[in-house]
Amino acid sequence: MQTHPTRYPTDLTDEEWNQIKSLVPAPRSGKRKRGRPIEHERRAIVNAVFYVVRSGCAWRLLPSDFPPWQTVYGYFRTWSQDWTWTFMHDTVRDWVRKTEGRAVAPTAAILDSQSVKTAEQPGERGYDAGKKVNGRKRHIAVDTLGLVLGLLITSAAVQDRAAAKTLIANLLSVFKRLQLIWADGGYLGTLVQWVKARRPFGKLRLEIVPRRGQGFKVLPKRWIVERTFGWFYKSRRLCRDYEVRLDHSEAMIRVCMLRLMVKRLANAC
Questions:
Q1: pTM of the entire structure?
Q2: What is the pLDDT of residues 139-160, one digit of tens each?
Q3: Three-state DSSP string of 9-41
Q4: Distances (CA, A) of 132 to 53, 129, 184
Q5: Neighbours of 181 (CB within 10 A)
């Protein structure tokens, strides 16, 4: 039964909030000796962040029925820097995999990148000559459900193969059972042997899925990561990179995926 009213489509229902409320940092218990008293519910803060990411509005343009934008942005920034968004995202991803009958630790991943323009703000950026985009690149690895396993934001000038080494190294440090990585032709070359050398006896390999012919074709496995990029674009804040800090850019993507996964979990219950 719905007991907490939802004002916007991005607001969490009671069922969805129950899925993640234990993951949201709680206010400090006991008598606070410093700082202002807690005035806003954690649920309202989370709903406001979801609203910004989905609608694409600036922080200052948050509707007045949310907590003040300074408060919401302050929590978003703090939770980006202390890895709270990463913890919430990864935990819910593991729950979704269990719900789908998968093991928590994946054995396969799909690798790809997405170049996006940046707004007129300070911060790292570069020019992707292949896509003709001046901005940043989102390098991601997803599982066979399309859920994000690894994420790296760089200047758009960084080559896919160069960023892939950092991303794959991060993946292997977390997912010990990973055996197969699919990627497109942009990753062909010395990276294939580099990946093979990460684990001896052929227990890890990079498999290139080539493009065949001209025109649009659904390519095996690669369509999964392309669908994930499509999920990003449904959140208007991700149609461009508006963030000055790279960790804020990563947090925006994790918030987008967190909202999607929480909805999936609630529907499965």
A1: 0.91
A2: 999 999 999 999 999 999 999 9
A3: CCCCCHHHHHHHCCCCCCCCCCCCCCCCCCCCC
A4: 25, 5, 19
A5: 25
